[in-house]
């Protein structure tokens, strides 16, 4: 009876290791085509980066960290549009960092590392951002906790929103299952016990909504703003929770 918990932990660890290996291999093998394959999402979507830049002008930051910087497309945008902003990035896949020179990112601006253990001191950056990377992380809130630790003024997350995807009955069902604490179990069954899906265009991905981090960010920030990151009609009081397939969450903290 004492051996079963240890055995289950080994199984869970092996699954997580296997998923990490699949994910790392995918990004390494597609590094040369990465920017073209993801041309309209995350840090490649300049319309949404424009919204983020508008938020940054309100915050007046001196420094910014991009978690999961990839090939540096987001950093390039901020270097070009906000030249006084000191930017850094962290990315786990070496092959993607090597492509950053194509986005005119100087060597050393992006360092190799993981979001779950950011190699920076507390409150090292005015703003810490992530652009469409948390749905690739098995424990996204572990990354968000680290983001709040090293952020001084704001944390900005741009990512998908499962509650705004699918037919309306399905959206409501997903929200009810999540609030009842049952979504993880349902997703486990839906994915055949893996907890993730794999597609040729997006690699390995987990079920994640930026709203999954809402309570964590609300506990850290003094003000929280959520805006739609994708075209949709605000036809309900539930906008953007149940109407937008993607959102931008900006958590503001008074650092003074």
The largest sheet has its strands arranged as 3-2-1-4-5-9-8
Question: Uncertain spans, ≥5 residues at pLDDT below 50?
Answer: 1-5, 7-12
Note the beta-strand portion: 15-25%
Radius of gyration: 18 Å
Termini Cα gap = 54 Å
* Largest sheet composition: 7 strands, mixed
Q: What's the average pLDDT? A: 89
Number of strands: 9
Query: Could you spell the SSE succession in H and E letters?
Result: HHHEHEHEEHEHHEEHEE
Number of helices: 9
Helix/strand/pairing category: alpha/beta
CATH class: Alpha Beta
Instruction: Specify the helix fraction band.
Output: 25-40%
CATH architecture label: 3-Layer(aba) Sandwich
The name of the CATH superfamily reads Vaccinia Virus protein VP39
CATH topology heading: Rossmann fold
Shape call = globular
Number of domains: 1
């Amino acid at each position: 009876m004492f051996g079963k918990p240890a055995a289950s932990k080994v199984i869970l660890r092996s699954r997580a290791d296997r998923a990490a290996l699949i994910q790392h291999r995918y990004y390494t093998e597609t590094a040369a085509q990465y920017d073209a394959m993801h041309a309209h999402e995350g840090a490649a979507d300049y319309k949404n980066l424009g919204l983020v830049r508008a938020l940054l002008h309100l915050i007046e930051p001196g420094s910014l960290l991009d978690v999961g910087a990839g090939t540096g497309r987001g950093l390039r945008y901020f270097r070009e549009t906000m030249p006084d902003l000191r930017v850094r990035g962290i990315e786990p896949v070496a092959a993607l960092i090597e492509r950053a020179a194509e986005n005119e990112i100087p060597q050393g601006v992006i360092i190799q590392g993981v979001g779950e253990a950011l190699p920076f001191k507390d409150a090292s950056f005015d703003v810490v951002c992530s652009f469409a990377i948390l749905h690739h992380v098995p424990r996204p809130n572990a990354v968000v906790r680290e983001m709040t630790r090293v952020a001084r003024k704001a944390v900005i997350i741009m990512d998908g929103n499962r509650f705004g995807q699918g037919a309306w009955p399905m959206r409501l069902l997903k929200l009810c299952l999540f609030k009842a604490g049952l979504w993880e179990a349902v997703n486990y069954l839906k994915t055949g016990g893996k907890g993730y899906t794999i597609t040729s265009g997006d690699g390995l991905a987990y079920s994640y909504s930026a709203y999954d981090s809402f309570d964590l960010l609300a506990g850290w920030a003094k003000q929280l703003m959520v805006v739609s990151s994708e075209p949709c009609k605000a036809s309900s009081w539930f906008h953007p929770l149940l109407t937008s397939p993607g959102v931008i969450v900006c958590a503001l903290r008074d650092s003074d």
